[in-house]
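Quick question, first post here. What does this chain look like in 3D?
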Amino acid sequence: MGTRQKDQRWVLAVGALLFCSLVCLSIAYPFPAAAQWKPDKAIQMVVPYAPGGGSDVFARTMVNILKEENLCPVPLVVNNQPGGSSTIGTTSVAHSKGNVLMLLTFISGQVAAPLTAGKAAATYRDLTTICNLANDEQFIVVKTDSPIKGVEDLLAKAKEKAGAMTIAGTATGQEDQMCNRLVERAAGIKLRYVPFNSGGECITALLGGHVDMIWANPSEFVPQYEAKMVRPVVVAKEVRVEGFKDVPTFKEKGYNVTFKFFRGIAAPPDIPAETVAFYESMFKKMFDSPRFKKEYLEKYMLSPAWLGSKDATKMVAESEGLFQGILKELELIK
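> Answer (accepted):
Ran it through. Tokens below.
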């Protein structure tokens, strides 16, 4: 064997030995990992609706669970910013570019509202979608002593009093009014829709006898239902809701009326990817916790519907297209 070949083998052997040594050292003394982002000051949780409504209940329940389960290292403070059918609060978050200490309760109505509000209102494109957590259910609710006992009574009276029967809902051009339009279209009736700022205001109007019925999510009427003050008549869902087995769906009565009312979380635009990852992980841990299932999903009869940031953004975009069609029927947009 030549001297040159021996030298090459010697170099290779030394190189292999050095490589193995470095591997062993890296195992024994690993390089420190880059610190993950986490909030160091209180986080503002903006709710673009008045206190007492479904979004307010959603926010306050989450804040309580996140705190008591030690899932967030800093406090979260609920900040109600109602008005403009949710556009005031939503737009304020959209204008807080890069703010890593701000979150927003984000529901389907906040996708619909900008379509009718004009160019000044922020859309989902002006936000960072963090996740979706649940789908709420849309019920028509009456006072316990109402002569409307079921879907048949409701439709008969609506046809008898064409355009005179009042039904309240949260805001103009949002879920409640869109659901109302689906019912009108399917049943060939006309109802007088009366908008309020929140589900809490709708309940107050119903109990005060100012409207005949209301659109409401369970979180908005369960306390009054348990007190035997109100009664749900029908739900816009594919199947009956577990907690209301005696309440029929529109579909089983022969009317193709269903609506998915999603509830999720968004944040200001242009926040770092590691911030999105932190919040997405935090809410996933909360979603997986027994407390969230018991204290929110089961208590208020919502359907679990987890979607991470990417999938939630896609779902929101698809919803916008569906809502545009309904709003055109309502002549709220062209």
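DSSP finds eleven helices and eleven strands in the chain.
The chain has two domains: 43-136+260-329, 139-253.
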